[in-house]
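Supplementary notes for students who missed Thursday's class. We covered one full example, reproduced here. Read the sequence, then the structure, then the short commentary at the end.
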Amino acid sequence: MKKNIFTLLILVGICLGMTSCELFGLSYAYSFKNEPGKDFDTLNCNAYEFIESRADNDLTLMYEAINRAGLKDLFEAEDYTYFILKNDQWDDYMSTAKYSCIQDIPVSELRTYILGYIVHGKYTSKDVTNPIYLESMNGVQIMRMYKTQTAPTSSQNLNSLVAGWVNPDGGVYQRGCITSNLVCTNGVVHILSSRLIIVV
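Structure (token representation):
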């Protein structure tokens, strides 16, 4: 009897946890019928709380970078779209820039870099039927976003978002999102497949 009650409590806890940020898993949003992109259910947390909930998992360095740059308030502010980097993408950035850890990056550089991944307004894949160009929050990068409309492969989500910074020559070195349309209480989060790059 005790074993059955214990099992039932575990199952109830898992079900409740699935709606929280703490146990929310990043999933792939495939649509094989070229249907309009769909939003995930609104998460019961803001973008900062979502990242904080994964600080012990795949968003450790993103969480550290936001706090070191003093940008927590922006990730709690209303009406923004955030492109998020996982740990391996931060490792790639630090390796390229010759930093050994987040704490080595000058705060001003870190702020500029993170702000380049944020645009004002809430954009999901169904809001971007044609490519759009938006100024990033750092006032330097222009971001081009569009929705994938080709047949999916093992590494591509149909109707997911694709983004990139516009290079000085007008070209865009674009990156897909491994997860799109995570609608938080204050904006939209997209998880990039790799970091954005500008060619100078």
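Commentary. The longest helix spans residues 2-17. The CA atoms of residues 18 and 141 lie 36 Å apart. If anything here is unclear, bring it to office hours.
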